[in-house]
Design a protein that fits this description.
By secondary structure, the chain is an alpha/beta fold. The chain has a single domain, classed as Rossmann fold (3-Layer(aba) Sandwich), CATH 3.40.50.1820. The protein has 12 helices and 10 strands. An 8-stranded mixed sheet has the order 3-4-6-5-7-8-9-10, sandwiched between helices. Helix 5 links the parallel strand 7 and strand 8. The longest helix has 19 residues. The chain is globular, with a radius of gyration of 19 Å. The N and C termini lie far apart (41 Å). The N terminus is likely disordered.
Amino acid sequence: MTTQSRSHQSRHEGVDLGRRNALRLAGMGIAALGAMPILHSSIAKAQDMSNGANNFYTSDKVNLHKVMFRNQYAMNVAGNLFTPKTLNRNAKAPALIVGHPMGAVKEQSANLYATMMAERGFVAMSIDLPFWGESEGQLRNLVSPDLYAEAFSAAVDYLGTQGFVDRARIGAIGICGSGSFVISAAKIDPRMKAIATVSMYDMGAANRNALRNSLTVEQRKAIIAEAAEQRYAEFAGGETKYTSGTVHELTVDTHPIQREFYDFYRTPRGEFTPKSSSPKLTTHPTLTSNVKFMNFYPFNDIETISPRPMLFITGDQAHSKEFSEDAFKRAAEPKELVYVPGAGHVDLYDRVNLIPWDKLDAFFNRHLAA
């Protein structure tokens, strides 16, 4: 971390996270939360490690190498490259890129998926999106859907130039928000030969409309107006404001969806703070940049990805399943929508007994075959 970023972190560490309890929650309006069914008991138990929750899983069957590569904007993108210990570097292996949930970093969910797929014989690389984790970008936690999508293409650049990777057999997995970013990338990058999403969020629709289209246009305009006004304050040297993300403490009034995220991001189950951030800022995008999602339409023209195959995986209890269903409806063949029985949204981040590894393995083995 540069001296400049350390200074920025110190200056804003105690910053007000904005009206997240009033208008938005993880990019969703309060109306959306009111429309959601109660998914769990009234008080969630912190650090629920059921169903094999193992976000920080490591394997003695794979090698890990930290890598750094440039995107088209001359920014460094950080990755963790996982290779099977049985890898024949004189041959050409299939490869996968794995993107982390929105507001997370590669150490949260993406590393787990990359490790498990490397155990199955793939070269797999988790990446930090720009402005997050170990990837470059100032301000930290900035929202830029275009640069997020570009990170996947830059990862293809890197993998496709490695002697042990078959550049004709590169696929991608997007978890949560990265599901929408990888779709955005794949529409203009045919080098991604097969695309899977898990617990996908369409970050554009989630911010424009909230869950179940419950955010009114008036509420949307109020969010946009607040962000626009805040630009003046920050341009004049005022403190950076952050928004949405995961709450830092539970109360009797905390919504079940926030409890679900809290159990992952705010307990040892999944908490991870990179050197470029602080515990108070993890998961929270900047208020002024978060409205850029309002102009993000990743599912427009999704059918043009065909004939490359797409796999959408969601829990049948997930509050986010509407996004996978919408993408599946719009996509052209070949496509597949898989519901995981009994699984919620965050369950598929790290619950190894629920995540359908065999399905992912079969999908990529079939569509990235030599």
